[in-house]
Amino acid sequence: MEYLIGIQGQDFVLVAADNIAANSIIQMKQDQDKMFKLSDKILLLCVGEAGDTVQFAEYIQKNIQLYKMRNGYELSPKAAANFTRKNLADYLRSRTPYHVNLLLAGFDETDGPGLYYMDHLSALAKAPFAAHGYGAYLTLSILDRYYRPDLTRDEAVDLLKKCIEELNKRFILNLPSFSVRLIDKEGIHDLEKLMPVGAK
Amino acid sequence: MALFDVSGYKSHSELRGQILGTGVGHLIDRPNQQFSVPVGVDPSGFLKSCSREGGVSIDLNHGTTTLAFTFRHGVIVAVDSRASAGSYIASKEANKVIEINPYLLGTMSGSAADCQYWERLLAKECRLYKLRNKQRISVSAASKLLCNMMLGYRGMGLSMGSMIVGWDNKGPGLYYVDDNATRLSGRMFSTGCGSSYAYGVIDSGYREDMTVEEAYELGRRGITHATHRDAYSGGVVNLYHMQEDGWIKVCKEDVSELIHRYRKDMF
Fold first, then answer.
1. How many A×B Cβ pairs under 8 Å?
2. B264 or A122: which carries more pLDDT confidence?
3. pLDDT at B235 over 50
4. Residue in B1, B181, B195 nearest the CB of A51
5. A25 touches chain B (CB under 8 A)
6. Is the torsion defined by CA of A135, A139, A143, A146 positive or negative?
7. Which domains, and CATH codes, for chain A?
8. Residue B242 CB neighbours (<10 A)
9. Of all helices (H) and strands (E), which one includes residue B94?
10. Residue B86: exposed, middle, or buried by beta-carbon count in 10 A (0-12, 13-18, 19+)?
11. Mean pLDDT of A129-135
């Protein structure tokens, strides 16, 4: 029901998430922000089972901040992704596993931009583009067809718009708005919300 | 811990030990009471085996409609009063709003026992917060306390859908908290098995600039129409209005009288 997407460019990562918080057939909230700021240049996008998403994401968020306080420097996106994966894996075979699907996007001074895909079984993969949710079945092929590693920021936003228009056209559920953010060496920037209009 | 050592910070427990001397027990600051459960016990599985499908027919009190919405003049809270145990109506006038303090209300839906216990515990924690910190707890913090209590019992079969309504320094506050530790802040929520019917009525009749009387009527309408369609909701509408200087109880009206009044107006 929920949708996450990330696209990595040469010196930025573009991420978007839908804004619906649902409970069975009811939309409880239409302006839910599913992105969690782990540090100045790292975002964690989190969807999955109710309750688990926010709890797990806040747990990771606070631990990343604690690491910074204890050691005086921040974790890199790669280290943060592996830390998150380890926590997810540790809970996987416990009595209360966290059923969450994640995208971690960040910008590192030395390694540049990075997008990490993580699923509820604690698989971790660094990828140039990724998506979660039923919407991924419709949009991954669009990303395969039109993605290039040297996309500019505007081209990446256009590619994102293509994906969201496809969801608006073919996906059975209505996702009326999407939060969009971009991470580059200056930090995290909020872009304007995307709200696909009308049926094509 | 680099910064910790350099700054010479003394943690609270160290200081207390210095002031009071050793031999005094350390301050117990746990927000929950923990139930000790033996390893291997599976409460949610046990509960399932006791229900109608499991053959034993001990159905918990379930079934409700509650709603709350914010508008220009505060927050309206409206609840029904039927407590059902399976198809048996256990009470016609159950109280589904807990008055935590003059500035905080909590609604209850789901299992009556779970709601009553945990929200009463929340009321205790809110009172302790006020005594310790000399100021009233914020709505955000109160809802987070309840959410964390739910988190502690994840997967154990608790059933609670609640709205925490209050007025604090940031203005009117409305939070939805449920048994899987979901916590959402918003301007309009409805919970319980009649909630979808209530959403239909309050969504179509809502305007941010309603007068107070119009808002009361919308709350009454939402519950009444939901109780009309939902078998597990009924009884009376209990209506509360959260204002800047605290909540007031507006009215308590029987839904069967209300629905007849509305239907007479229709024809």
1. 46
2. A122
3. yes
4. B181
5. yes
6. negative
7. 4-193 (3.60.20.10)
8. 24
9. none
10. middle
11. 96
Q: Does the pLDDT at position B4 exceed 80?
A: no
In a domain, B37, yes or no: no
Q: Answer yes or no: is pLDDT of B47 > 80.
A: no
pLDDT tens digits for B18-28?
A: 655 544 444 34
Residue type, A170: R
Number of H helices, E strands in chain A: 4, 12
Tokens of B194: 């009649």
Residue B233 falls inside a structural domain: yes
B41 is a domain residue: no
State the catalytic residue, choosing from B22, B64, B224, B227. Answer: B64
HEC string of B7-26 equals: HCCCCHHHHHHHHHCCCCCC
Give the integer Cα–Cα distance in Å for B52 and B210.
Answer: 45
Domains held by chain B: number:
1
Show which of residues 103-132 on chain A sit within 8 Å of chain B, judged by CB atoms.
none
CB-CB contact of A35 with A4 (8 Å): no
Dig out the tokens for B16 from the structure: 């207390």
pLDDT at residue A50 is higher than 50: yes
What average pLDDT score do residues B74-94 get?
92
> For residue B142, what are the domain limits?
66-266
CATH, residue B256: 3.60.20.10
Q: Residue B36: pLDDT band by 50, 70, 90 thresholds?
A: low
**Interatomic CA distance for residues B239 and B171, integer angstroms:** 20
What are residue A124's DSSP bridge partners?
Answer: A118
Q: B54: which DSSP letter?
A: G
- Alpha-carbon dihedral A160, A24, A91, B158, rounded to 10 degrees: 160
The predicted complex's ipTM stands at 0.84
Residue A81 CA to residue A89 CA, distance in Å, equals: 12
Rounded distance between C-alpha atoms, residue B150 and residue B156, angstroms:
10
pLDDT of residue B27: 39
Distance CA B67, CA B202 (A): 9
pLDDT digits (tens, 9 = 90+) for A52-82: 999 999 999 999 999 999 999 999 999 999 9
- Total number of residues shown for chain A: 200
Distance to chain B for A63, nearest Cα, Å: 14
B193 in a structural domain = yes
pLDDT(B7) > 70: no
Mean pLDDT (chain B) is 86
Contact yes or no for A26 and B1 at CB 8 A:
no
Q: Which two tokens stand for residue A77?
A: 């996106």
